[in-house]
Specification:
Two copies of one chain form a homodimer.
Chain A (H helix, E strand, L loop, with lengths): L2 H7 L7 H5 L2 E6 L2 E6 L11 E3 L4 E3 L7 E2 L5 H5 L6 E6 L3 E8 L2 E5 L7 H11 L2 H6 L3 E8 L17 E9 L8 H11 L6 E5 L4 H14 L4 E5 L6 E5 L1 H13 L6 H18 L3 H27 L5 E8 L1 H12 L5 E9 L2 E9 L1 H11 L3 E2 L2
Antiparallel strand pairs in A: 1-2, 2-3, 3-4, 6-11, 6-12, 7-8, 7-9, 9-10, 12-13, 14-16, 15-16
Helix pairs in contact in A: 8-9, 8-10
Chain lengths: ~375, ~375
């Protein structure tokens, strides 16, 4: 397809093809040519993929806005909805599963085909029947569990990994199916979904949601997504546990994250504590735990580097040996430095634990530990 | 003077006048024309001031590099010095006092003449005799105490404000006098100086300095500056109390500071805790206090804004009414929004407490409290 043909099919705010297509980059994978939008532009979401040979589109997944206060945040965000659906926001890796050139592929947020996630999505979802029936839909899913190449949040009853479909979208428009239709469809095809916390009146949802969040927080789970019935309007809100865990992770690799990453999580804590912690002693206790999430992981990392160790993100993956090799090849394309920490066989599968080394953190901390100066 | 004449007199790394002078801006004050360098460039420090009418130079004060670990930081920073001077770093407002067109003026770090600080410097230093004897020297001093228009750190025995001369420099080269010469000269003219913690062998200074810092920390004081005998090479190191106080201040006005301001102070805590807190319980206690420094001031500010209050930096100044008016006029030149909190007479002086309102913090927090979303 030429640019004009693509342009006519896409729901973009750009005035002419050149304005849009200058932002796409060309990548090859699996014998196909993908045009990928690496940032949200002109009304199209980041990770939008156009398949040259087949004319197929995989829409990007939109970023979900966030509120920092529940009341009046929920009400203000849904001024017109009669009711809103509250679902759990899972802490994993967001992928879009679409049939491309006849086979199901899993695309990362940035529009890459991850071979490992693709294989796991096929194993866990068996989506062939779904795509036979609905070739124009894509599945938006979260790969969760302790054994994924990208995240490692623990969930009870998930020993390795699992997948949860949280959205189903039309491939050309990118529009979601209505919440009820999507939940029905997932049940019909046997796709597991995130826990559902019911429908609520937006005017009174904040109080109901507060209870849901208290339970999620106690279980160290991430938070919730609230959606209008159409599925199109959605907003998220996260738990204290999630903020603290993310800060602990970020400060364990302090030079790997943008300053904004750290700041935004600290500010979330501020607004949530101001809204929810009425008791001064609870507030103080929360402040102390926040401090522990920041300082203890940072000191642990500095100590490790002082002892000559490397630091980074550790992940475990499992599968047949070729699949693991394909994953490592895929990760190395991003110029990551990988260290193999453990490589063993278990029940005929290869179980690999590897570290994505964090070079900025190692280098900066080494420099300061050697007496390097900060020029201010 | 024309640019070429200035250029020939300045010790700059620029190749030709235009390269340097494009970075200067012209300001008028007290009937004089000042060419001011607002950022460090071509070997000249930020705040360098050239006085058009008189041909006088006021060199900028260099930024002092910082080490994050004492051992081997101190040793590495002074590989050749036989001994280093350790002096207290005071928490106040850095000004350069120079005689310009016959009268002593106090220049801020950015090269502005502050009328209030100028008047206080004249009152507190009586520098006329010094400048009569040494017209080619400038005094680098810290205005400290609870009553200054810029800082408000408390020191025992300072009820209002005081000034401490921590450096004396040659006005054309910007070079400092040697530490011993400077301390002698200050004694001779009756200028008070920062506390002096002796001369130390750089190879063993880290341990000695650790004890000094423990005392300073217990008294909530800022830290130390270490200098080679010539005064030219210097490096700073700050206390836990200073990091926590600065974080508490910054998180009380979270949208007023760059993300780097917050991050740098958190990282200082990480390195210092890794080096100095050997006991896990002390480390945990420190982490908890860090968390309290972050969350409690932020929640207090959010609560205040929710209650319709403004927030900002509060300062108290004291003096004759014209002096206070001149200060307010000076501050308003920077487009600051000032709120008068208290305005009274005491012993014939005007005592004014005012707030520099922090508009970004008020606006952002208001927006989120009204249910505004964060687009991620």
């Amino acid at each position: 397809m030429d640019d004009q043909e693509w342009f006519d099919r896409l729901e973009t705010a750009a005035d002419e093809p050149g304005e849009l297509f200058e932002h796409f980059e060309t990548r090859s994978a699996r014998g196909l040519t993908f045009q990928v939008l690496s940032d949200a532009r002109h009304g199209l979401d980041r990770g939008t993929v156009l398949v040259e040979e087949t004319g197929e589109v995989v829409p990007g997944y939109p970023s979900i806005p966030r509120i920092l206060v529940l009341d009046p945040g929920v009400r203000s965000f849904f001024p017109d909805a009669e009711r809103i659906a509250v679902e759990e926001k899972l802490n994993g890796f967001n992928v879009r599963v679409a049939r491309v050139d006849g086979e199901a592929l899993a695309f990362t947020r940035g529009g890459y085909v991850c071979p490992y996630t693709t294989a796991r999505a096929r194993d866990l979802l068996s989506p062939a029947a779904f795509f036979d029936d609905s070739p124009d839909l894509i599945l938006c899913a979260e790969l969760i569990g302790p054994e994924t190449p990208y995240t490692s949040h623990d969930y009870p009853d998930i020993e390795s990994d699992a997948i949860r479909v949280f959205d189903v979208r039309e491939r050309h428009s990118g529009d979601p199916l209505p919440v009820e239709r999507r939940r029905e469809l997932c049940r019909e095809y046997g796709f597991e979904q995130p826990p559902f916390f019911g429908w609520h009146d937006p005017a009174t949802a904040a109080a109901a949601v507060e209870d849901v969040l208290a339970d999620l927080d106690a279980d160290e789970r991430e938070g919730i997504v609230m959606k209008a019935p159409s599925g199109a309007r959605m907003v998220k809100y996260t738990t204290r546990a999630q903020h603290h865990n993310e800060l602990a992770f970020a400060f364990s690799l302090p030079y790997e994250h943008g300053r904004d990453f750290l700041f935004s999580r600290l500010v979330r804590e501020g607004f949530q504590a101001a809204e929810l912690e009425d008791d001064p002693e609870r507030l103080r206790q929360r402040a102390r735990e926040l401090g522990e999430s920041i300082l203890l992981p940072m000191v642990e990392t500095i100590d490790a580097i002082a002892d000559g160790e490397t630091v980074g993100e550790d992940h475990t993956v499992r599968g047949d040996p070729e699949r693991i090799d394909a994953l490592l090849d895929h990760l190395r394309e991003f110029s990551l430095t990988l260290e193999i920490l453990e490589d063993r066989r278990e029940d005929g599968e290869r179980v690999l634990t590897f570290r994505k080394v964090s070079p900025s953190t190692v280098d900066r901390i080494d420099y300061y530990l050697d007496g390097g100066v900060v020029d201010e």
